[in-house]
Design a protein that fits this description.
The protein is mainly alpha-helical and 186 residues long. 54% of the residues lie in helices and 0% in strands. It contains 10 helices and no strands. Helix 5 crosses helix 7 and helix 6 crosses helix 9. The protein is elongated, with a radius of gyration of 22 Å. The N and C termini lie far apart (68 Å).
Length: 186
């Protein structure tokens, strides 16, 4: 523990391995999970969460093998485009949440990551989040699922699959007749 607050430095985090996780304390496990398993890769890679998100997204949306593949990068693009807030970096929230979900089975003593669970166990894990007594946990899962759905179904190549023919604005002619307002209308 390098600093006076009991927090680990980046150099100390980079030395941890999965073996350290298994023999370390609970705080070490949380730190390791937040850094996405391989701290050396995660510390220098801003997109380290995309592998987790590629597995989590299809399960979260109920996509099957015949559906178009889920694009994990579309979630980050959507968040940056639609929610550009300097106060809250929603991309970081997505990153951390995808890593927490990916490593949650390890904390439940299943000693498997999310991608190593079968589909039924993965869906049961999400049900646990949605049925949680903790309101924050439920809200985070709804936010995460909503962002994944918006990103996936907002892609043009998905539209024919769901029967959406695209936006009407600019494609369907709008009437140019003047609207008459009668008196008494408020």
């Amino acid at each position: 523990m390098a600093d006076g607050n009991g927090l680990l430095t980046l150099a100390e985090i980079e030395r941890f391995t999965r073996r350290d996780f298994l023999k370390g304390s609970g705080a070490l496990g949380v730190l390791l999970a937040a850094s996405c398993g391989n701290a050396r890769t995660a510390a220098g890679n801003e997109n380290g969460h995309l592998g987790s998100l590629a597995v989590i997204g299809p399960v979260l949306l109920g996509l099957g093998p015949v559906d178009k593949p889920f694009d994990p990068a579309s979630v980050s693009r959507l968040v940056r485009k639609v929610f550009p807030s300097p106060e809250i970096d929603l991309v970081k929230v997505v990153r951390v949440l995808s890593r927490v979900i990916h490593y949650q089975p390890v904390f439940l003593l299943r000693f498997k990551t999310f991608d190593r669970l079968d589909r039924g166990e993965q869906e049961k894990l999400f049900e646990g989040w949605l049925d949680s007594r903790l309101e924050t946990r439920r809200m985070l899962m709804v936010l995460f699922r909503t962002l994944c759905a918006m990103a996936h179904y907002g892609r043009e190549e998905i539209w024919p699959e769901i029967g959406y023919d695209g936006p009407w604005v600019g494609r369907i002619p709008m009437p140019h007749d003047a609207v008459k307002v009668t008196s008494g209308v408020t």
